[in-house]
Amino acid sequence: MIVDTRTPDPKKFIKGATGDWEIVIGMEVHAQVSAKAKLFSGASAEFGGEPNDHVSLVDAAMPGMLPVINGFCVEQAVRTGLGLKAEINRYSVFDRKNYFYPDLPQGYQISQYKQPVVGEGTETIDMPDEGRVEVGIERLHLEQDAGKSMHDQHPSMSFVDLNRSGCALMEIVSKPDMRSADEAKAYVSKLRTIMRYLGTCDGNMEQGSLRADINVSVREPGGEFGTRCEIKNVNSIRFMGQAIEYEARRQIGILEDGGTVDQETRLFDARSGETRSMRSKEEAHDYRYFPDPDLLPLQIDEAMIDDIKASLPELPDEKKARLIASYSLSDYDADILIGEQASADFFELVAKGRDGKAAANWVINELFGRLNKEGRGISDSPVSADQLGAIVDLIDEGTISGKIAKELFEIVWQEGGDPRAIVEDRGMKQVTDTGAIEAAIDEIIAANAEKAEQVKDKPNMIGWFVGQVMKSTGGKANPQAVNQILRDKLGVE
Ligand code: ADP
Ligand code: MG
Hints:
By secondary structure, this protein is α+β, with helices and mostly antiparallel strands. It has 15 helices and 16 strands.
């Protein structure tokens, strides 16, 4: 029985020709377990390599080969379950899911069906305009990945690469708790963040380590759940959004024309931005699930769960709450900083003993902005946390202005070096010496006598004078001092 946990929110309704509609989404995410070896064999689970380089006799399903469970993969699944605040099932069972496909040499996939290793849990997502949303997790189970058929290598033959065959996947099934494409995107990206913190899946979508089947239906707001379509194997967060938007519109169109939505499996075509039918419910496989006689049921003891619990890192939600409380950050800034553990760590180094808001501003706006522009990650930032911290200190002490600080940041980015020494060596210090500022101001007033007269009636013109002084001092004059002295000399209140 599906329980509706959400109150309909008019902000998310889609306008149709006959009225409002609400989208309902449930996700089945496939996440490859970060492990050296496969789920039931010792072959390498590493991405890449020459085709069929990472294939043991078990993965190729040679007669008589027997699967042996990889305990580390089980631990990774339990770890992920704990990260999702989920029930860990002490007893679970591996089943055979039978179907024929050229890239599935066993003729069945070993998966978990009725008794998965992880049961119900929750993931929270923070949406900018609606606040915190809780998405229910239905289950997480372990299963084998299939190989890959290659149809573009030879004019008349298809080839098969079994490198991926037998790699451990976690299938994480959500409840149908999402109500917009944005929520679904936030759900997947948060799930990826959580698994990266846990170290259980690298979340690399280009390499296929994370992909999702998206279940979409529409209904009248708050009404009965509609018939869903399942969009298979979408491997980019942007495509997920596009697929959902398209699919919801398509279903609304059918219903408004008096038709009914057929339950079916569909594919998203990234080129056209459309979904198209792959197979209908009638053509759905009958997998003839049954417990795999080669594998004993999985029994997990308390000690293993306790050990994993004790080794969990601070998770994104907790980190966010702590950053907000300790550094007075906005929700928005905290969300950006916790996106990656390394970003949050970097920020905390910069913020330590300094003003949190200023540190966040420099880390997010200047550093992340610059890194994004060059497509680089925090781990290969040319500016270290110490260097950025020194820049923040120099501004805070009044040694340099904010404007000069940006130039200094650029120098450190390009050339490296100690920010304090650079300021000293290149004469970048802010001029707070009022004598020097006064001299510059006198010169500018003398050269612009007419304007100095007009400013008495138009006080806004003072900005022009400030600009001139800053220009003549190479941006180094202390802006507050300039403003004050100008006002005194020009007789502006
Ligand atoms: P199956 O195993 O046949 O794919 P499940 O009942 O396990 O079916 O559901 C798979 C996914 O579909 C889950 O993520 C669930 O939340 C989602 N789902 C179920 N009903 C709906 C619905 N009416 N609209 C959208 N998603 C749904
Ligand atoms: Mg399904």
